Amino acid sequence: MSEAMPAPPLSAPDRIAARNAFLERAGWGAAEIRPLAGDASFRRYDRVRQGTSGAVLMDAPPDREDIAPFLTVDSLLRSVGLSAPAVLAADAELGFILLEDLGDSLFTPLAQDREREAEIYAAAVDLLAALHRHTAAGMPALAALPPQDHALLTAGLDTFLDWYWPAAFGRAASADLRRDFLDRWAPLLETVRPGDRPDPGRDVLVMRDFHADNLIWLPERPGVARVGLLDFQDAVLGHPAYDLVSLLDDVRRDVTADLAARLCDRYLAAAGLHAQGPERSRFETGYAIFGAQRNIRILGVFVRLWQRDGKARYLDYLPRTWAMLDRSLRQPALTPVAEWFAAHLPPAARRLEGGAS
Protein backbone atom coordinates (compact mmCIF):
# COMPACT_ATOMS: atom_id res chain seq x y z
CA MET A 1 0.00 0.00 0.00
CA SER A 2 1.45 3.37 -0.95
CA GLU A 3 1.71 6.12 1.64
CA ALA A 4 -0.83 8.93 1.42
CA MET A 5 0.60 12.09 -0.06
CA PRO A 6 0.46 15.16 2.19
CA ALA A 7 -2.26 17.65 1.38
CA PRO A 8 -1.13 20.59 -0.75
CA PRO A 9 -0.37 23.75 1.22
CA LEU A 10 -3.26 26.11 1.90
CA SER A 11 -3.19 29.72 0.84
CA ALA A 12 -2.82 32.23 3.68
CA PRO A 13 -6.55 33.07 3.76
CA ASP A 14 -7.48 29.37 3.66
CA ARG A 15 -5.00 28.64 6.45
CA ILE A 16 -6.62 31.32 8.61
CA ALA A 17 -10.05 29.89 7.85
CA ALA A 18 -8.84 26.39 8.80
CA ARG A 19 -7.38 27.77 12.04
CA ASN A 20 -10.63 29.48 12.94
CA ALA A 21 -12.62 26.32 12.22
CA PHE A 22 -10.25 24.30 14.42
CA LEU A 23 -10.69 26.75 17.29
CA GLU A 24 -14.47 26.66 16.84
CA ARG A 25 -14.49 22.85 17.06
CA ALA A 26 -12.31 23.04 20.18
CA GLY A 27 -14.74 25.42 21.88
CA TRP A 28 -12.53 28.47 21.42
CA GLY A 29 -14.36 30.04 18.50
CA ALA A 30 -14.75 33.41 20.23
CA ALA A 31 -11.11 33.63 21.31
CA GLU A 32 -8.95 36.69 20.75
CA ILE A 33 -5.80 35.71 18.84
CA ARG A 34 -2.46 37.47 19.20
CA PRO A 35 0.88 36.45 17.64
CA LEU A 36 3.25 34.96 20.18
CA ALA A 37 6.39 33.66 18.49
CA GLY A 38 7.98 31.76 15.67
CA ASP A 39 11.08 29.60 15.84
CA ALA A 40 13.76 28.13 13.61
CA SER A 41 11.20 25.77 12.04
CA PHE A 42 8.09 26.47 9.99
CA ARG A 43 5.92 26.46 13.12
CA ARG A 44 4.34 29.59 14.49
CA TYR A 45 2.55 30.25 17.76
CA ASP A 46 -0.38 32.44 18.77
CA ARG A 47 -1.70 33.22 22.21
CA VAL A 48 -5.48 32.81 22.36
CA ARG A 49 -7.72 34.18 25.06
CA GLN A 50 -11.39 33.58 25.71
CA GLY A 51 -12.89 35.20 28.78
CA THR A 52 -10.59 34.40 31.68
CA SER A 53 -9.06 31.37 29.94
CA GLY A 54 -5.89 31.39 27.87
CA ALA A 55 -4.05 28.90 25.67
CA VAL A 56 -1.37 28.72 23.00
CA LEU A 57 -2.06 27.69 19.42
CA MET A 58 0.67 25.87 17.51
CA ASP A 59 0.28 26.26 13.75
CA ALA A 60 2.44 23.69 11.93
CA PRO A 61 1.59 23.50 8.20
CA PRO A 62 1.43 19.77 7.45
CA ASP A 63 3.35 20.11 4.19
CA ARG A 64 6.28 21.44 6.26
CA GLU A 65 5.87 19.98 9.75
CA ASP A 66 4.44 16.84 11.39
CA ILE A 67 2.83 17.38 14.80
CA ALA A 68 2.64 13.65 15.62
CA PRO A 69 6.13 13.55 17.24
CA PHE A 70 5.25 16.53 19.42
CA LEU A 71 2.12 14.80 20.66
CA THR A 72 4.02 11.56 21.36
CA VAL A 73 6.84 13.23 23.28
CA ASP A 74 4.47 15.55 25.14
CA SER A 75 2.59 12.51 26.40
CA LEU A 76 5.81 10.75 27.46
CA LEU A 77 7.07 13.77 29.38
CA ARG A 78 3.79 14.35 31.14
CA SER A 79 3.53 10.66 32.03
CA VAL A 80 6.64 10.99 34.23
CA GLY A 81 5.42 14.14 35.97
CA LEU A 82 7.17 16.83 33.93
CA SER A 83 5.63 20.14 32.89
CA ALA A 84 5.20 19.74 29.17
CA PRO A 85 2.09 21.72 28.20
CA ALA A 86 -1.22 19.86 28.35
CA VAL A 87 -2.80 19.28 24.94
CA LEU A 88 -6.29 20.79 24.91
CA ALA A 89 -7.11 19.91 21.31
CA ALA A 90 -5.26 18.73 18.21
CA ASP A 91 -5.82 18.19 14.49
CA ALA A 92 -2.92 16.21 13.03
CA GLU A 93 -4.25 16.41 9.48
CA LEU A 94 -4.37 20.22 9.51
CA GLY A 95 -1.37 20.71 11.80
CA PHE A 96 -2.94 22.59 14.72
CA ILE A 97 -2.50 22.00 18.46
CA LEU A 98 -4.13 23.99 21.24
CA LEU A 99 -1.85 23.89 24.27
CA GLU A 100 -1.81 24.88 27.90
CA ASP A 101 -0.23 28.31 28.25
CA LEU A 102 2.79 27.99 30.55
CA GLY A 103 3.33 31.74 30.70
CA ASP A 104 6.22 34.05 29.88
CA SER A 105 8.81 33.38 32.59
CA LEU A 106 11.49 32.12 30.22
CA PHE A 107 14.83 31.18 31.75
CA THR A 108 16.82 33.52 29.49
CA PRO A 109 15.66 36.85 31.00
CA LEU A 110 15.38 35.43 34.52
CA ALA A 111 18.96 34.17 34.40
CA GLN A 112 20.30 37.71 34.07
CA ASP A 113 20.11 37.68 37.87
CA ARG A 114 23.04 35.42 38.76
CA GLU A 115 21.49 34.17 42.01
CA ARG A 116 18.27 33.31 40.21
CA GLU A 117 20.30 31.71 37.41
CA ALA A 118 21.92 29.26 39.81
CA GLU A 119 18.53 28.33 41.28
CA ILE A 120 16.68 27.76 38.03
CA TYR A 121 19.56 25.99 36.30
CA ALA A 122 19.88 23.65 39.28
CA ALA A 123 16.18 22.84 38.86
CA ALA A 124 16.74 22.13 35.15
CA VAL A 125 19.63 19.78 35.96
CA ASP A 126 17.49 18.03 38.58
CA LEU A 127 14.80 17.62 35.91
CA LEU A 128 17.27 15.89 33.61
CA ALA A 129 18.43 13.59 36.38
CA ALA A 130 14.80 12.69 37.17
CA LEU A 131 13.94 12.14 33.51
CA HIS A 132 17.01 9.96 33.00
CA ARG A 133 15.93 7.61 35.75
CA HIS A 134 13.36 6.47 33.20
CA THR A 135 15.62 4.50 30.89
CA ALA A 136 14.87 2.35 27.88
CA ALA A 137 15.38 -0.71 30.06
CA GLY A 138 12.56 0.28 32.39
CA MET A 139 10.18 2.28 30.22
CA PRO A 140 9.17 0.38 27.05
CA ALA A 141 7.24 3.39 25.71
CA LEU A 142 10.59 5.02 24.92
CA ALA A 143 11.00 2.51 22.10
CA ALA A 144 8.59 4.69 20.07
CA LEU A 145 11.29 7.33 19.78
CA PRO A 146 13.74 7.32 16.87
CA PRO A 147 17.28 6.38 17.92
CA GLN A 148 20.10 8.90 18.20
CA ASP A 149 22.09 6.69 15.86
CA HIS A 150 25.07 7.12 13.56
CA ALA A 151 22.88 8.26 10.67
CA LEU A 152 21.21 11.00 12.72
CA LEU A 153 24.45 12.30 14.19
CA THR A 154 26.21 12.17 10.82
CA ALA A 155 23.34 14.11 9.25
CA GLY A 156 24.20 16.99 11.58
CA LEU A 157 27.81 16.92 10.39
CA ASP A 158 26.60 16.82 6.78
CA THR A 159 24.59 19.98 7.45
CA PHE A 160 27.83 21.76 8.30
CA LEU A 161 29.54 20.56 5.11
CA ASP A 162 26.48 21.28 2.97
CA TRP A 163 25.94 24.85 4.19
CA TYR A 164 28.86 26.35 6.11
CA TRP A 165 31.65 25.12 3.82
CA PRO A 166 30.16 26.57 0.59
CA ALA A 167 29.38 29.84 2.38
CA ALA A 168 33.01 30.11 3.52
CA PHE A 169 34.74 29.01 0.32
CA GLY A 170 32.23 29.54 -2.50
CA ARG A 171 32.33 25.90 -3.54
CA ALA A 172 31.04 22.54 -2.35
CA ALA A 173 33.16 20.38 -0.07
CA SER A 174 35.02 17.82 -2.17
CA ALA A 175 34.22 14.14 -1.83
CA ASP A 176 37.70 13.44 -0.40
CA LEU A 177 37.42 16.22 2.18
CA ARG A 178 33.95 15.06 3.21
CA ARG A 179 35.08 11.46 3.51
CA ASP A 180 38.09 12.43 5.62
CA PHE A 181 35.91 14.51 7.95
CA LEU A 182 33.28 11.82 8.46
CA ASP A 183 35.89 9.07 8.81
CA ARG A 184 37.41 10.98 11.72
CA TRP A 185 33.99 11.19 13.35
CA ALA A 186 32.86 7.60 12.79
CA PRO A 187 34.65 5.95 15.77
CA LEU A 188 33.55 8.78 18.07
CA LEU A 189 29.90 8.40 17.11
CA GLU A 190 30.11 4.65 17.62
CA THR A 191 30.91 5.23 21.30
CA VAL A 192 27.76 7.26 22.00
CA ARG A 193 25.03 5.79 19.86
CA PRO A 194 22.15 3.82 21.44
CA GLY A 195 22.68 0.13 22.03
CA ASP A 196 26.42 0.15 21.43
CA ARG A 197 27.60 1.70 24.68
CA PRO A 198 28.71 -0.37 27.69
CA ASP A 199 25.39 0.45 29.37
CA PRO A 200 22.73 0.50 26.60
CA GLY A 201 20.00 0.15 29.19
CA ARG A 202 20.84 3.74 30.19
CA ASP A 203 19.52 5.13 26.88
CA VAL A 204 17.06 7.89 27.72
CA LEU A 205 14.67 10.42 26.20
CA VAL A 206 16.82 13.19 24.71
CA MET A 207 14.88 16.39 23.95
CA ARG A 208 17.72 17.86 21.78
CA ASP A 209 16.72 21.53 22.29
CA PHE A 210 16.96 21.70 26.07
CA HIS A 211 18.24 25.24 26.65
CA ALA A 212 17.23 28.49 28.36
CA ASP A 213 15.07 29.80 25.52
CA ASN A 214 12.89 26.68 25.73
CA LEU A 215 12.47 26.52 29.52
CA ILE A 216 9.82 28.33 31.59
CA TRP A 217 10.01 28.89 35.32
CA LEU A 218 6.89 27.72 37.18
CA PRO A 219 7.79 28.28 40.86
CA GLU A 220 4.29 27.47 42.07
CA ARG A 221 4.69 23.84 40.99
CA PRO A 222 6.50 21.20 43.09
CA GLY A 223 9.94 19.75 42.48
CA VAL A 224 11.10 19.26 38.91
CA ALA A 225 7.65 20.28 37.64
CA ARG A 226 8.85 23.86 38.29
CA VAL A 227 10.57 23.71 34.89
CA GLY A 228 8.17 24.10 31.96
CA LEU A 229 9.23 22.48 28.70
CA LEU A 230 8.94 23.72 25.12
CA ASP A 231 10.20 22.57 21.71
CA PHE A 232 10.86 18.88 22.30
CA GLN A 233 9.24 17.37 19.20
CA ASP A 234 12.63 16.22 17.81
CA ALA A 235 13.28 13.99 20.82
CA VAL A 236 15.19 10.75 20.33
CA LEU A 237 16.33 7.76 22.36
CA GLY A 238 19.96 8.39 23.15
CA HIS A 239 22.80 9.37 25.44
CA PRO A 240 22.11 11.15 28.76
CA ALA A 241 24.93 13.67 28.20
CA TYR A 242 23.31 15.35 25.19
CA ASP A 243 20.71 17.53 26.92
CA LEU A 244 23.13 18.48 29.68
CA VAL A 245 25.49 19.79 26.99
CA SER A 246 22.59 21.61 25.34
CA LEU A 247 21.77 23.37 28.61
CA LEU A 248 25.28 24.30 29.76
CA ASP A 249 27.09 24.80 26.43
CA ASP A 250 24.50 27.19 25.04
CA VAL A 251 25.36 29.38 22.03
CA ARG A 252 22.62 31.85 23.01
CA ARG A 253 23.95 32.82 26.43
CA ASP A 254 26.98 32.35 28.67
CA VAL A 255 26.95 29.96 31.59
CA THR A 256 30.11 30.63 33.61
CA ALA A 257 32.67 27.84 33.75
CA ASP A 258 32.30 27.68 37.55
CA LEU A 259 28.52 27.32 37.45
CA ALA A 260 28.68 24.79 34.61
CA ALA A 261 31.17 22.66 36.55
CA ARG A 262 29.01 22.75 39.69
CA LEU A 263 25.91 21.80 37.68
CA CYS A 264 27.73 18.94 35.96
CA ASP A 265 28.78 17.63 39.38
CA ARG A 266 25.18 18.01 40.58
CA TYR A 267 23.91 15.94 37.66
CA LEU A 268 26.60 13.28 38.01
CA ALA A 269 25.93 12.93 41.74
CA ALA A 270 22.20 12.50 41.05
CA ALA A 271 23.04 9.95 38.37
CA GLY A 272 25.24 7.99 40.79
CA LEU A 273 28.48 8.63 38.87
CA HIS A 274 31.26 9.06 41.39
CA ALA A 275 34.04 11.64 41.31
CA GLN A 276 36.39 9.25 39.53
CA GLY A 277 36.04 5.98 37.64
CA PRO A 278 35.40 4.59 34.17
CA GLU A 279 31.69 5.45 34.08
CA ARG A 280 32.33 9.11 34.80
CA SER A 281 35.20 9.17 32.30
CA ARG A 282 32.96 7.71 29.58
CA PHE A 283 30.26 10.25 30.41
CA GLU A 284 32.70 13.17 30.20
CA THR A 285 34.03 11.92 26.86
CA GLY A 286 30.47 11.67 25.59
CA TYR A 287 29.81 15.19 26.85
CA ALA A 288 32.76 16.51 24.81
CA ILE A 289 31.76 14.54 21.72
CA PHE A 290 28.23 15.93 21.81
CA GLY A 291 29.49 19.42 22.57
CA ALA A 292 31.53 19.34 19.37
CA GLN A 293 28.94 17.54 17.22
CA ARG A 294 26.14 19.88 18.30
CA ASN A 295 28.09 23.03 17.59
CA ILE A 296 29.28 21.78 14.21
CA ARG A 297 25.65 21.04 13.31
CA ILE A 298 24.55 24.43 14.67
CA LEU A 299 27.08 26.23 12.47
CA GLY A 300 25.50 24.62 9.43
CA VAL A 301 21.95 25.20 10.63
CA PHE A 302 22.54 28.90 11.30
CA VAL A 303 23.98 29.41 7.81
CA ARG A 304 21.03 27.52 6.34
CA LEU A 305 18.58 29.72 8.25
CA TRP A 306 20.39 32.76 6.85
CA GLN A 307 20.70 31.65 3.23
CA ARG A 308 17.55 29.59 2.75
CA ASP A 309 15.10 31.22 5.14
CA GLY A 310 16.33 34.81 5.29
CA LYS A 311 16.88 34.66 9.08
CA ALA A 312 20.17 36.56 9.23
CA ARG A 313 19.93 37.15 12.99
CA TYR A 314 21.31 33.66 13.61
CA LEU A 315 24.67 34.76 12.18
CA ASP A 316 25.22 36.81 15.34
CA TYR A 317 25.78 33.53 17.19
CA LEU A 318 28.52 32.19 14.90
CA PRO A 319 31.55 33.60 16.79
CA ARG A 320 30.24 32.15 20.08
CA THR A 321 29.55 28.81 18.42
CA TRP A 322 33.09 28.61 17.07
CA ALA A 323 34.52 29.47 20.50
CA MET A 324 32.51 26.69 22.13
CA LEU A 325 33.49 24.22 19.40
CA ASP A 326 37.17 25.04 19.84
CA ARG A 327 36.80 24.43 23.57
CA SER A 328 35.23 20.99 23.01
CA LEU A 329 37.94 20.06 20.51
CA ARG A 330 40.57 20.32 23.27
CA GLN A 331 39.32 17.00 24.67
CA PRO A 332 41.98 14.37 23.76
CA ALA A 333 39.44 11.98 22.20
CA LEU A 334 38.59 14.69 19.65
CA THR A 335 42.18 15.28 18.50
CA PRO A 336 41.56 13.83 14.99
CA VAL A 337 38.66 16.27 14.47
CA ALA A 338 40.67 19.17 15.89
CA GLU A 339 43.45 18.39 13.42
CA TRP A 340 40.96 18.48 10.53
CA PHE A 341 39.75 21.93 11.53
CA ALA A 342 43.32 23.18 12.02
CA ALA A 343 44.16 22.05 8.49
CA HIS A 344 40.98 23.15 6.67
CA LEU A 345 39.13 25.78 8.74
CA PRO A 346 41.48 27.65 11.06
CA PRO A 347 40.13 30.93 12.48
CA ALA A 348 41.42 32.97 9.53
CA ALA A 349 39.30 30.90 7.09
CA ARG A 350 35.99 31.11 8.95
CA ARG A 351 34.69 34.46 7.76
CA LEU A 352 31.56 34.24 5.59
CA GLU A 353 31.08 36.45 2.57
CA GLY A 354 28.26 38.84 3.47
CA GLY A 355 27.82 37.23 6.85
CA ALA A 356 29.72 36.79 10.11
CA SER A 357 32.87 35.07 11.19
TrEMBL record:
InterPro entries with a match to the protein in the record: Aminoglycoside_PTrfase, Kinase-like_dom_sf
Highest taxon, organism lineage: Bacteria
One Pfam family here: APH
Residues in Aminoglycoside phosphotransferase domain copies: 32-271
Protein name: Aminoglycoside phosphotransferase family protein
Species of provenance: Marinibaculum pumilum
